[in-house]
Amino acid sequence: MVEYLIYFMIISIIPIWASVRVKNTYNQFQRVANSTGATGYEVARRILDANGLYDVRIEEYSGFLSDHYDPRTKTVRLSSANYRGNSVAAAAVAAHEVGHALQDQEDYAFLRFRSSLVPVASFGSNASYILLILGMIMQFYEMILLGIVLMAAAVLFQVVTLPVEFNASSRAMDQVVSLGLIRNEEERGARKVLNAAALTYVAAAAVALLELLRFVLMFVGMRGEE
């Protein structure tokens, strides 16, 4: 019982810690204006145009750190603070999302693979726990195994997300530095923002892997008791 409590505390604390870390880092550098005075919109537009992506749109989006790139509509969506703000944080986040557009432009393998996993990962994350719990109650091993397979698909999506996000951040830094959109000590701040944001994906993948391992071990244990 104590072991389970410790386990659930760990998987609860990891994502909370990562979320607090990214919010604190973002808020710190949101108060630091970049030396060019460029808003997140201007940073994104400059990078897109420099790479010939004139057809990719940039839209203002509601919410806190709700920034994302939609490959279906070729649209970079930036939260209001980053769309209108001229901070180091706004420049870093805007460039990161454009990094995904650059991946899309070159048909980046991991991005393509992640996109193909979306339907099964979405279904798996919703259905796996239902199947696992019902299977354990009913002692229906085939149902448990199906739940584990669906959960594994959702975990695979989380794992594949890591190289996609790290690569987008790497591209972002290359672009903002080469185009002179951030300068000197601002580069360090931008990296801190992107690294903190990456932690949320690492935390999500770690928790997902731990949960998958827990159910696999439970399944093996149940079969071993037969």
From TrEMBL:
Pfam families: Zn_peptidase_2. The keyword Transmembrane applies. The chain crosses the membrane at residues 6-22, 117-138, 144-164, 193-220. Keywords: Membrane, Transmembrane, Transmembrane helix. It comes from Fervidibacillus halotolerans. PANTHER family: MEMBRANE PROTEASE YUGP-RELATED. This is Zinc metallopeptidase.
